[in-house]
Design a protein that fits this description.
This protein is mostly helical and about 475 residues long. The protein is built from 16 helices and eight strands. The strands form three sheets. Strands 1-2-3 form a three-stranded antiparallel beta sheet, with helices on one face. Strands 4-5-8 form a three-stranded antiparallel beta sheet.
Length: about 475
């Protein structure tokens, strides 16, 4: 009698299969659904043993059931994804200056460090090694932290779009950054600085910076239509920034062909000997830089841009003693305009060069350093001599923190506290008043009769008097 064999049970639509192949490996096939083109999406996993491939298959099924499985297809490299992220995603949200900074750190740090790794193969160890190399090369921890934040944000978007299973940047601890201690002017130093600045044509630029705490870009971006001398108010609706040029042509790579340089510079390079940051990195094979030489370049140079936050546009009161000097500054500017004639470039800027163009931020920074030397003040940051100084002196004058926050236009009072530095003489005076509040004042000295014979009877009489 022939034995009747039952047919092999049919697998369910989403059931996975595990088998040993003729190549000696164990293989797993997992049905994930369908691809964008409508074809079945089946993923392959393999391992040396059956338990190992089973574990891989179960992990992929778990991601599929939770809706966290990465999309089908070969994943881009970190370099490819960063270019896509900065070109198509970040450019829609970031301010031009911030976007330039993202591109700079991507080209100089992220792509040389981990650019060749595929997104789905990127591991925390790759990031940690890159950060260690950057620190060994002399980069500040704050620079490495900025690189980490840029990379983490790009990987976060990739994770949201299910290109990767996990953002590995969240598994890495970036270097700890010690907050730079503020070094503002004392009141005497501020007076000495302004006395040196009084000899310069743009004396009021430094009065506004030191006395009102405006940022450099806001001060240089002040324009007369936004200055209310009658109401004694500045309306900082614009800031002046130097932006990187962008190509206006359709073929950026071909446009910069004569400037491409694919080999690193020799150790005795003389071409870039005046570069403060050393020789630039070689170009990539698909380099689209050198936009400053593009005949149709756009979006670069000195540009008036809007402030970063809404709070930054709040009006700032002008100290009344400043108003007569501002009127005098405006009259002198009218004389400069008449002297320049047709060479005058009208930008309605409050602080200008002799031909009407806005002051260059770099030249402004160099003038600040020169004034420090003339005034005999130790070297410090421009922020210390303006914004930090204004916040600290306002605090010394007894102005409360919420008011200082409004003057400096911070969004959080914790940010204002970082701008205000305590003074040792104020601390000593505060502690003296604290002691006076708790401890009794010493009684004034009075003449008393002193007993020369300190006998037992005399001590007893003193005790009775005290009781």
């Amino acid at each position: 009698m022939e034995e009747c064999m039952s047919p092999r049970p049919k697998k369910l639509n989403m059931e996975s299969s595990i088998y040993e192949g003729s190549d000696g490996w164990w293989h797993g096939r997992v049905t994930m659904g369908v691809k964008d083109d409508g074809s079945p999406d089946r993923r392959h996993r393999r391992a040396k043993t059956e338990p190992e491939v089973t574990r891989k298959v179960r992990a992929l099924e778990n991601l599929r059931d939770k809706g966290r499985a990465p999309k089908a297809g070969r994943k881009p490299t970190v370099a490819q994804w960063m270019e896509t992220y900065l070109t198509d995603i970040a450019s829609l949200k970031l301010k031009p200056r911030s976007l330039d900074d993202y591109w700079s750190k991507t080209r100089n740090d992220i792509v040389p460090g981990i650019g060749r790794h595929r997104l789905d193969k990127l591991a925390p160890e790759h990031l940690e090694k890159m950060y260690r190399v950057m620190l060994d090369e002399g980069h500040a921890p704050s620079h490495v932290l900025k690189v980490h934040r840029i990379l983490s944000r790009a990987l976060k978007i990739a994770h949201r779009r299910r290109m990767i299973v996990e953002n590995v940047a969240t598994l890495v601890d970036p270097p700890t950054v010690d907050e730079t201690e503020a070094n503002p002017f004392t009141t005497d130093e501020a007076k000495a600085f302004l006395q040196a600045a009084a000899k310069r044509p743009n004396f009021m630029r430094w009065c506004v910076g030191v006395g009102m705490g405006l940022r450099q870009g806001e001060t240089l971006g002040l324009r007369w239509p936004y200055v209310d001398l009658e109401g004694e108010l500045f309306h900082p609706q614009w800031q002046l920034q130097r932006l990187t040029w962008r190509h206006g042509c359709k073929e950026p790579h071909a446009c910069g062909a004569r400037l491409h340089r694919f080999e690193p510079c020799p150790p005795d390079c003389t071409t870039h000997k005046n570069y403060t940051r050393g020789c630039p990195q070689p170009c990539t094979k698909t380099c689209t830089r050198h936009a400053s030489a593009c005949p149709e370049r756009k979006g670069g140079g000195l540009v008036f841009t809007r402030p970063k936050t809404k709070k930054s546009t709040n009006p700032v009161p002008i100290p009344p003693p400043f108003v007569p000097y501002l009127r005098e500054h405006k009259a002198l500017q009218e004389e400069m305009r008449a002297a320049a004639g047709e060479e005058w470039e009208e930008h309605k800027a409050v602080f200008t060069r002799p031909d009407g163009r806005p002051l260059d931020p770099r030249a402004d920074w160099e003038e600040f350093k020169d004034l420090l030397k003339e005034a005999g003040i130790d070297d410090r940051r421009l922020y210390d001599g303006s914004r930090h100084t204004a916040g600290t002196i306002l605090n010394e004058l007894g102005v409360d923190m919420p008011t200082i926050m409004e003057i400096l236009r911070h969004t959080q009072i914790s940010q204002t506290r970082r701008y205000v530095k305590g003074r040792s003489h104020l601390s000593k005076d505060a502690m003296r008043r604290m002691g006076d509040a708790f401890m009794p004042q010493p009684e004034p000295a009075i003449e008393t009769t002193i007993e020369t014979m300190d006998s037992r009877a005399a001590r007893a009489r003193r005790r009775r008097r005290l009781r």
